[in-house]
Amino acid sequence: MAAAAAATSTCSPSKRHHSPNLSKPYSSPSHLPLNFRKFTSRATRTAVSCTLARDTAAAAAVSAAVMQEAPPSLDLPRPDSFGRFGKYGGKYVPETLMHALSELETAFHSLAGDPDFERELNGILKDYVGRESPLYFAERLTEHYKRPDGEGPHIYLKREDLNHTGAHKINNAVAQALLAKRLGKKRIIAETGAGQHGVATATVCARFGLQCIIYMGAQDMERQALNVFRMRLLGAEVRPVHSGTATLKDATSEAIRDWVTNVETTHYILGSVAGPHPYPMMVREFHKVIGKETRKQALEKWGGKPDVLVACVGGGSNAIGLFHDFVDDKDVRLVGVEAAGFGLDSGKHAATLTKGEVGVLHGAMSYLLQDDDGQIIEPHSISAGLDYPGVGPEHSFLKDTGRAEYHSVTDDEALEAFKRLSRLEGIIPALETSHALAYLEKLCPTLPNGIKVVVNCSGRGDKDVQTAIKYLQVVPYRTTGKCAVALAVVLQDSNVLHPRSERACWAIQLSSAALTEYVPCTRGSEDIGKTSAFCGDAAAAMTTYPEKPLSTSPLIAAMELVF
C-alpha cells in the first residue's frame, strides 16, 4: 500500500487512428447548394495513456511534454469525432441534453446522405428563399476607394440581404425545420439578438405548421421593435428575457433552459455556429451554400477566385458560411470583423476574438469575454446581432491556426459605413453588415490594384433604421445655412407651428444638424448667427409658448427648400 501511495502517475502520448466505420464529418465537393458526401480519409489524433512510476522527476518531464499543445492543423477533420475543432467546441451540457444532442447528430448524418432530403431542401432554398443570391459589383463603392492614381480593389457584395426574410439566417432555419419534422418534433424554440434569426425561424414554422417560441433580450426587443412585430405577425410567441444584460447571451441561456425542460417534444433551432456539438458543424453545413455560390459566381464573372473575403463576426454563422469553401485555398484571405463598440480599451465592446480568453459558454469551449475570475463580461455593440460575449469554436480554431484574421470596428465607424453604402449604392445594410463594410476603410488602402474583395452583405437594414435615427443626423446634401434659417424662421413664428408638436421637434433637430454639418458652406455669412438664434428661440418656444393652431403650408415651403 505504501509503495502504491508513493507512486507517481505519468502520462505519455500515443497515436490512435479513427476507425473507418465511425461517422465522419462531411465535405461537399459538388456545387449543389447542399451536398453532404462523407470524406473517408484516415486521420490521427493524440491520445494519452497513463501508467504508475516511482521516478517523480521522469514523471514531471513527461507530464510537461504532454502539456505542450501541438500547433493546430487544418489537415485534421473539422470537427473531429468528439465534436472539437482543435481544442475548441465539444459538449459541455447537462446530462439531460446528451441524448437529444446524440439523436440530433445521428439524424443529421443520416439525412445528409438522403437524396430525398437534399432534393426537398434545395427546392425550398430555390423557390421559397430565392437562392442563389447575387454577387453584385459595387461600382460606386469601388470608385470611392480608388486612390488618386485611379487604382484600387474591386468590391463585390454577396447579397444575402435579398433572401426571403432579409438575411442569411433563413438558410439554417429552413434546414433545421425540415430536420425537426423528421425527428417528429412539433415545438420549436430559438434565440435571437437582431431579430433576423427569430424572423427566419418564425417564417419556417409558419411554412411547416410548427409551434414557435422565440427568446429575445428585452433590450434587443426595444432596439429591434420592427422584427418583434414581424415575428408575432408570423404567429410566433416572443418571450422577453429581462435577466442579466437582457441581450443575446441571456436569450440563449433561457432557450437552453426551455430545451432542458421540454427536450422530448422540442427542437432548438440554434441560430449561430456556437453551442454544443453538433450545432457548430450543422449550422456551418447549412450556411456553406454562401461560399459555394460565391466560388461559382466568381468563376463566371472574372474567371477566378476572390482574393479577399470579408464578413462580420458575432457568433459567426454568416462568416463561416462564406469562408468554409475557401479554407483550403491558402491564396484567399479570410477577414472577420468584430464589434469594437465604444473602443477596445473602453471595456464596452464585443470583440471576443480580439480581446477574449478561452473558456466555456453555452455548451462549447471557445474564446469568451471574461474577467479574471472567469465571469462573463457584459458585451456592447450598437448592433444587436453582434452583441454576444462568445464566438463559434471554428472561428477560434481558424484564429489560432492563422488561417483567418480578425479585426474590429467601432459603433461610429459602423454607422458611417451604414450611411455610406446607402448613399453610394442605394443599399441599406444591416448594422451587423455595416461592421464588415466599415473595415474597408482600413483594408482597401493596403490592397494592390484590381484585387477582388467580396463582402458578405449578411442582412438588410430596415430593422436598424430606428437605431440609426437615434445616432445619425441624416441631412440632405443640398442643405445650406439659408435652408436652416428658413426652417428656424418657421419654428420661431408661434402662429405657424404648434411648438410642442412632433414635427416641431424634428425640424429643430434638422436645422441644428444643418448648422453643425454645413458650417463650412456658410462660414463668414450672417446665416450662421441667425440660424443659431432662431434655433434657440424655437427651443424656448417648446416650453413657453401657448398652444397654437398648426398651419403646415409655411413648413412645407421650408421643407421644399431643403429637399
Automatic annotation (TrEMBL):
Membrane spanning residue stretches = none
Q: According to its UniProt record, which reaction does this protein catalyse? A: (1S,2R)-1-C-(indol-3-yl)glycerol 3-phosphate + L-serine = D-glyceraldehyde 3-phosphate + L-tryptophan + H2O
Query: What does the record give as EC number?
Result: 4.2.1.20
User: What positions does the domain Tryptophan synthase beta chain-like PALP occupy?
Assistant: 131-459
Q: Which UniProt keywords apply?
A: Amino-acid biosynthesis, Aromatic amino acid biosynthesis, Lyase, Pyridoxal phosphate, Tryptophan biosynthesis
| Entry-linked Pfam families | PALP
Q: Which InterPro entries match?
A: Trp_synth_b_CS, Trp_synth_beta, Trp_synth_beta/beta-like, TrpB-like_PALP, TrpB-like_PALP_sf
The name of this protein is Tryptophan synthase
Q: Which organism is it from?
A: Ficus carica
